[in-house]
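so the lab meeting is tmrw and i was supposed to have these ready like two days ago... anyway. pasting both below. for each one the top line is the aa sequence and the line under it is the structure tokens. i havent really looked at them closely yet so no promises
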Amino acid sequence: MKRALIMLVFLLLSLTLSAPLTAQDALAPAEITGEVVYIAFPVAITLDGNLDDWAGVPQVTVDRGTQTSPDPLQNASFTFAVAADAENFYIGMTTVDDNIITGQHEANYWNEDSLEFYLNLSDDRYAEVYGSGMFQINLNPGDIGNTDPTAIRVTGSNSAASQVQAFVFATETGYGIEAAVPLSAYFTPEHGREIGFQAHMNGATEQDRNVKLIWSLADTNDNSYNNPSLFGSGLFFEVGRTDIPMASERPEPVVVAPQRYVSLNQIGYYASAPKFAMFAGPGTNGTVWVLRNVDTDEQVAAGFTSPGRLDAASGDYVQTVDFSAVTTPGTYVLTIDTTTSEPFQIVADELYTQLPFDAARYFYLNRSGIELDAEHAGDLWARPAGHLTDDAVTCWRGTDPQGVQWDGCDYTLNGRGGWYDAGDYGKYVVNGGISLWTLLNLYERLPNAFPDQSLNIPESGSGVSDLLDEARWEMEFLMAMQVPEGQPLAGMVHHKLHDREWSGIPFMPPTEYDNNSAFANASGGRYLFPPSTAATLNVAATAAQCARIWRDLDAEFSARCLSVAQTAWQAANDNPIMLAGNVPGAGGGNYDDTDVSDEFYWAAAELFITTGEAQYRQFIRTSPYYSAFPTASGGASSMTWGSTAALGTISLAMVPNQLTTNEIVTLRGQILQTADRYLSVIEGEGYRVSLGANGYAWGSNSDVLNNAIILALAHDFTGEARYLHGVTESMDYLLGRNALGFSFISGYGVRSLQHPHHRFWANQGEFPAPPPGVVAGGPNGNPSDPDALAANLNTVGAAKRYLDVIGSWSTNEVTINWNAPLVWVAAYLQLRED
């Protein structure tokens, strides 16, 4: 029936971009509306911005989408046609638009008048994430009249890899494009070859986009930029053939029935620690539970769960099992009602033997500027060096989305090295700062936790702790981001370094990248972005840490760190309100911060500990943060990249310094007060976690870990077991004792992180799964990525708003500042003092 319909459609009158077309003149069948478009080949197309040579190629007109226009003269429809020769795919597109809006949103051309098309040239027709051969290509009328098709401004997912060439031209009623994408790297066109194809139009009446027209009927929510499975099909049709190829059937979505789990730590429990497990029951009643030893098949404990209690964070009626009385080491399973857990361990002290090292290797495996060889990275995670061309990066110049003009600079910096921040290949000073501080603070607390050669990194064998060797890789990068002497703003620190546009995902970090330092192209490039007070104080603080830690290990490096720290401190005081904002608006995160008083306090604290100088003592004593620890009386977590005052107080409370004993006791008391509040939250939550129902922010798992650091310090200061138990319960939550029955740490647990939002650890095709020891961001009370929204996560409790899919950047991204506290907590528990 469908084949007969195609034949009928093919016999109907078709149109071309140039003139009316009869069925006998048509070079290919007409489209199947919103599902299939036929790509006529071979057709002799000259890429010149003139559509006269498109005669005979059927055209398609689109007037549907998520936002339509009632005005026939203003973005009401667009028309396209597609063709190919042996080397290139061609597309011509036109639209009626009597009021073109362009150049109002910097590189966010999707938010104004623009035309875009999408291709999936790979063998994975229904891929759900962008990979090699998959492109979103947005072209805008700001380039009307261009004469060089290679210098066109191109944006969109993975667009830089498309090698597209295009002309943009004016028409009597609007504008159009003619574009070519080379095919030779993927295949040679043949009759019936299927690709993914999509076409969109963005329209703006006054400034922001208010029209969105979409060809593919599969894309009902404007999500093609994120999910290429929503493209329609493009079928190559050899001119002169009479047999009409069929498109493949779109896979039916897989519906997974909800499954009930026993929520417990999938790795196990310390014999001396509390042992809780949870079960989401149907109501307020309790149910029976049985604990069995796997090796002997002996029932070692049994009873009834607590009555079901409504947990506001998850929406579950949570039944709890407390089997803390079982202390005999062994392998066990727990059955609640008729659901049985996976086997788990009860051990005396060797529960997290490998986790601290796996978690710490995250940083080596995210290094920039160095080859990850198989000897150190392992065969799965070895890759070429990324971004060696960061050794000469200049300042971005242009206009940001707020209309502010940035003039750039006349110098380049050697920004090679450091750690890639998260799922992207940007490098950010403020996120690097708290990550580095956490690792250095761990060294100051447990200097023997990571001895030389414990992490199998290239520097192993140096005679220095491998943790310090890894930390130095980032410290060198942070110091390299300082504005050189003799330049305007000398001593300030650039906020970040990243691409001008977002790269596709998955995507291998390029060894060589066109930084576009001469601004020869209107789009693309990789740049330094403006200095900020926050970034400068992050470097002042961490470089001060560096100076005291390396004082007896490498005096020259220590002195350099101190000089950088003191220079940064002075520069920040000279420029106290240089705040980061939405610059440049694409290609990387903002990490914007409107209050840097906490960074000033933190930096002063670290400089005081290192130098003992009176100016820093005076500064910290007059700061409001000196007398009030963050979140002591409220808030989800004491420390984030944007809230760093706690870092200063922690250092002052635990690292020897010249404050009086009474002052240190007072600071420790603030930490104890905060730890007590976290214990109270744990007691009140159904899944016994230190986050309240409103506490599930972006990266909530890092909040759990940072809160666990506070609890660990409270245990250090008092020796009280209840604080240590708070630390172990935090790890229980991360490893499966949560509303999803899921381990958020890769490689640890039967159901654990597999598909992080990470461009290299994509777990598909040539890209490997994540290595063990990577923690996901976790449930987000306000998920914002298209995958999370399509899954209706906002309809479930905040504690369940998580997806283990690569596209869920708001719940499943991984970052350096989330893995750093995992290293800290895992090492602390492994070396804990009962």
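ok protien two:
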Amino acid sequence: MKMHKPFLLVLTVLISFSLHADKNKKAAKALAKGDVDKAREIVIESLQDDIVNPGGNYLYSLIYTIDSLPDYSIDSAQKYILAARVDWPLLTEKEQGKSIKNGFYPSLFEVQKERVDSLAFLRAVAQGDVVAYESFLRQFADADKVPLARTKRDSVAFSDASEVNTWQAYQRFYETYPEAEQVPEAQERYKVLIFNDLTKDRKLSSFKDFLRNFPATPFRKEAEEQIFEIMTAANEPESYLRFMAEYPNSHMKKRAFDFVFAIDQAAYNFQYYSRYTPTRAIQDSLDNLRKLENIYLAPFYENDKYGFLKPDGAVLFGPTFSSISTDYLCGDIVSEFLLVDDKVINRQGGIITEGEFDLVESIGAGLIKAGSEGKMGVWHKSGYQILPRQYDDISLLDSRLLLISKGEKAGLATYNGRILIAPQYDDITVEGQFWIFIKDDLLAFTNIKKIAAIANQEELRLSFVYEELEKLPNGDMIGYNGDSECIIDKNQEVVIPMGVQNIYPMGDNWLVKQPFGYRIFYNDTRKYSDNLFPEVEFNSQWLAWKSDTAWALVNKQSARGIIFRLDSAKLINEDVALTFKDLKGTAHFNNGSRVDFTKGDKVYVLGDPYRKDNYDSKSQFLVIENSKLKKVYSMQGKLLFDLKQGSLRYLSPNYLVVENRGKQGIVDTTGKQTLAIKYDGIGQADAEGLVTVLLDGKFGSYHLATGALAAPKYETRARYFNDQLLTTTLKGATGLTNFEGKTVLPFEYEKVQVWNDSLVMAQKEGLWNITSLDGKKTYYMPFINFQVVRDDNEEKILKIYTNDGYGVLSSKNGVVLAPTYNDLVNLGSDTLPLYFAEKHVREAEFYVVVYADAKGNPIKSQAFRGEEYDKIFCQ
């Protein structure tokens, strides 16, 4: 019988399965008996017989997991168990049944697979590195241990990143393993490390670049604080404005605003005000703050609490404070802070700092120094602590930097409190653009820009080579070291190097005295003159020098030529220089005028004796005198007059005193006699042009401007009272006269003082009265004594005392407070008083207090018991 090929194939497979099924059963029995070699041999034979052999693959996988065998292999075990799983569906139902009957079925395969997976997992755990876990996860992707393997892999990977501990390592971790539970921690560490790494040089550019590249960084605040401190280290208003413009949303913007406002107010007279107050609302707010800081405050006491009043009586702070500084009880509180209840508060009521302090004081530009037991700190009036309480002293230098002291050493901190230079120098001072450091008796200098650059990690280099530094009027500096000197200009460049020399300013140039003579150093070319002069005279206008045996003269400020071949030269002052040649002398004037004289003539200057250190050509006359006459010239070389007899003395820019045969008189600049030459003495003119004259032991007066003469008949010198009257004494009494000596107020008073244009204060028999100029009419009440509250051109205010008590008189407002009070104190300023007036009711043992304004209008009234009154009374 003929068979079809499909039937033959099926029959072959059935026969084959039957054969390897039997072999697998035998192999299983051999394996069960421990005969691994026989089992392997049978399994290999079985697998060779049929490639679809789940039982054989299972058994081979099982053999490969016996760890005592040399060919132990988890990977091979996985290969065969996976093959078993693949083969099983390829069997027919009948074959599957027989396989199950022989002991080989899918659940058994799954147990082996799980066992192989576990062994693979344990292998990865044993190796313990990321590569092992990654290999497991790739090769055993469906294993039950995959989640645990992934967790362990993440842990090992994070540990590896932690060991490297760079932001790059953490970045690789969270980018490679985005699902790892360590990702948040890795990201946090990444942010810290990348911030620290990219800003490790601590420079301004690094912090700016970091914020530009990582705008959402959690270190934005720290970066902005560093940027703020570095940018504003020199404490210039422009730097705060730049910061606010570049970082308009920064948490440091308010501090920048508060700082620039205080600095602008203190050092720049609000020059930058419009730059940081862009809106009307902000301007109004700051205007109110400025007004509040520019008024005085006065205390009041109510319900066992203290409060503070404004000058108009409005309450700034209600009675909420249990204690205030005792210095405040006398009012006129102008400080920008208040000491209340162990707190320092600003005028807006904000707390600046708290605690018990021995010392609290303003050091300028809105900064307040406070401390106790010798340790000081600094706070800004807006409430920021600038420096902790750990310094022996702190002050503000040049409205720029804080001078901090510990022991005997000084250092510098910024206005914001960043330490630039720890205390290490003997002292630090400022002269113009020069910041001068002193150490071991030697000096070095630098500028604010270089000091501020320390905040940007720039090194400050100081050269301690000077024993002394002297600032010149033009801002340059002379440096001294022993016999050596040098010139440093205001830009701190050395103009004339250090050398054994003496250097003198000479206009825009310098005269340098060297061991063998003088040379001129020209500032514009920075070169010395070619000539060396053995002798030199100079001032701001003239230069005279000797070359070989001849002198020369030049006016430094004019284009006129040099005068050569002179026998000698002499500089009288800045306006006149004298030259001599043969028998001829010449006076040279600044304007080019010249006056010749004979060599034997006497040439001298008459000048104001009180202006020796403050030269003024208007207070000088040149006199050329010979045996016959004196010629008087102005400092412009104009001949004013000749005098044949007598001597001359300076009196004023327009008058001279002439003395002849022991008598004195006055002439003007034309030589005209304005006061006869008959007086025993003539004094110097005072500021009002009043000159005292003396004749036969009596005093009179002469007024230069009007020519009015009060004949000498008084016992004391006349004094200027106002522009129409003089005060003097006659027969032991004081009165008033006009400039001609006519009596206006009779000589019957002990003292006379100005009250206003039409009234005077006159004391008679111990009592003061306000009287008319002629003394015929008396105003107000007499008073025994007085204390001046205000005395200026606008108003005179007196606190007066009478038998009935204290009161207030004003030259403008009359009786402000009737003299009925037991005590009276001005709690305000001289120009805007606020009176605290008290009446003591002895019978009831209480005190009635009235607060009154400058015109006497009541602002506030109170009644106190004795113990209460003591708490508000100004001692």
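from a quick look at the 2nd one: The mean pLDDT is 89. The first helix runs from residue 5 to 32. will dig more after coffe
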